[in-house]
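Lab notebook, bench 4. Still working through the backlog of constructs that have no structural model yet. Next entry is a single chain of 321 residues. Request: give me the structure tokens for it.
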Amino acid sequence: MSQPTPTTMRAVSQDTAGGPDVLKVIETARPQPDRGEILVRVHAAGVNPADWKTRSRGEFSVGTKPPFTLGFDVSGVVEAVGDGVTVFQSGDEVFGMPRFPHPAGAYAEYAAAPARHFAPRPTSLTHIESGALPLASLTAWQALVDTADVRPGQRVLIHAAAGGVGHLAVQIAKARGAHVIGTASAAKHDLLRSLGADELIDYRTQDFAETVRDVDVVLDALGGDNWARSLRTLRPGGTLVSILPLDDTFPCEEAEAAGVRAVFMLVEPDQYGLREITKLVEDGRLRVIAEAVFPLEDAAGAHRLGETGRTTGKIVLSVAS
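Model written out:
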């Protein structure tokens, strides 16, 4: 006899803004896929800075208020498909970053979202590794490929090169034929060299703005005074891509005087991008580092580690065995 379909699931929820301890595991109704959607049994959910920033302010950027379930990165197995879905069927293994910047609710046993926000999961990766990929890899891909159009022979400076986005950006830029310069603490230089970085700057002892010149593209995830200092490294006609909004602290006049293009890029769900990233993975040109794995019940611990700002690669929640 087949097992009855569960009508409830475990999920991490918060009722208010605050520190990691506001995250609680609850029993809630299992979602149903709407037209054009799939229901995914979540095996792993990536943890990103957007998660703890949303948790601490108690509001998604789209205005959604608590209670809500965090999480954008999903790796899992299709449980059911909604009307009109033809690209997946029950049993398919998928990964994606559905609905961003709207709530995806990945910190849960099931998530329902548009089918075309997902792609087939890389067969050479575990669910944990696949769950670490979508948001960070799509951010790096859309910044370097879609926005900056990195080409062979160009010089690319990547800040926080050992971080979740950074370690993937190093590899994507290298796969595009670029000369890659990264900023990171000295302890992470060997790892970054193994990922393809050509030059490395220890931000604790060296000022990149004094030594790096004639860069074509800068990928910045830090903001603040890093913007002005990064402009000094760019050649005229170069591009600074920030994954933080260019607020009133950004030196617009300096960028204009230097003849530099500066843009803020917000990552979007992108099935095509996921498929291109999968090609790099399957070709052995991209690997994802999942530094720490936490059970769903310890989402708070994952957030505490993430907020130290000292992790290498990604943090992931293991949801289903």
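Notes after review: The chain has two domains: 8-133+288-318, 136-264. The domain at 136-264 is CATH 3.40.50.720 (Rossmann fold). Flag for follow-up if needed.
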